[in-house]
Amino acid sequence: MTPRKPHMENRKSVTGLFCAVSAYLTWGFSPIFFKAMASVPAFEILMHRMVWSFLFLLLMVILFKRRRRLTEALTSRHNLKLLSLSTLLVSGNWFLFIWAINSNHILQTSLGYYINPLVNVLLGTVFLKERLRKLQMVAVVLAGLGVGYLTVHHGEFPWIALTLAVSFGLYGFIRKTAPVEALEGLTVETLILSIPAALYLLYLHHTGAGSLFHDGFQMDLLLMGTALVTAFPLLLFTIGARRLRFVTMGFLQYIAPSCTFVLAVFVYQEPFGRAQVYTFIMIWLALTLFSIDAVRAWHHSSGFKSSSSQAVIK
Asked: Which residue has the higher pLDDT, 276 or 299?
C-alpha cells in the first residue's frame, strides 16, 4: 500500500489539474456560447439558465446520491436566508455578464474577473477585519490606479467590470459562510428562481414572444445548453479544488479572464487603445504582486518542507 501512495496522489493531482483547467477554459470561452444567442434578450437567457440549470443539477443530486444533503439545505432557515441572498447576487452577476457580452463589452468582463481576487481581499478587510499585508496593499492601490486611469483618460467609468467583480466577490463571501456544498448550494439557488423563471418563459411562449421553439432547433439547443455552461464547469471546478493546492488554484483562476481578454481583443476586435493597455498592465502587475504574496503566505503558514510533500488538499 505504501509504495503506491505517491502514485495515487500524483494521479489525483493530474485529475484535479485537468478538471480545474477545463472549468476555467469553459468559463473563459463562454462568451462564444452567449454570442451565439445575441438575438435573445439577456433577461430571457438568464431565465432559461435558471430553469435548465436547476433540472440538470437536480439530476446530478440524484445520480450522486446527495438528496439528503439537499433536503438539509432546504430545511435550514439560516441556510435558506443566506442562499436567497446569494441567489440575488449570482443572478444579477449572470445577467450583467450575458448583457455585457452581447452588448460588446467583453473586455470589461475580462477586467472584472481580473480584479475579483483583489476585491476578495478588500472584502476580507471590511467584513472579517483582516489586515492587508504590504504586497496586498500595493496590489490594491495599483488596481485602483488602473481603474482611475481608465476613467480619466478614456472618459468612461468601468462600472461593468467593477459590478461583476464586487457582486461575484460578495457571492463568494456569502457562500463561504453558508455550510452548504457547491452542488447542493447551486441547486437551491437555481430552485429559488426557477419557478418564477418558468412562469415568465411560459408567458413568453404563450404570447409568441419567446425564443424557445420559435427560433429554430439550434437556438433551442443553445438555450437548454445554458445548464451545461452553468453546472458542468462548477462540478469540474469542485473536483479540481479538492485535489489541488490552494495556491495552485489561485494561479489557475487567471485562465478564464485571460481567455476572455483574447476573445475580446483578437476575435471580436473590441477597442483596445492606450488607456486600456495601461490599465491592464497595472492590473496584471497588481495580480503578479498579489500572487507572490499568496505564495509567501502559504509557505509561511504551512511550511515548505511539509507542504511540498502533499499533492492534494482534502
From this structure: 276
Distance CA 104, CA 120 (A): 26
Average pLDDT over the chain, rounded to whole?
86
pLDDT of residue 312: 33
Q: pLDDT (tens digit, 9 = 90+) per residue, 88-136?
A: 999 999 999 999 999 999 999 999 999 988 888 888 888 877 788 888 8
Say what the pLDDT of residue 306 is.
40
Question: Grid coordinates representing 37?
Answer: 444567442
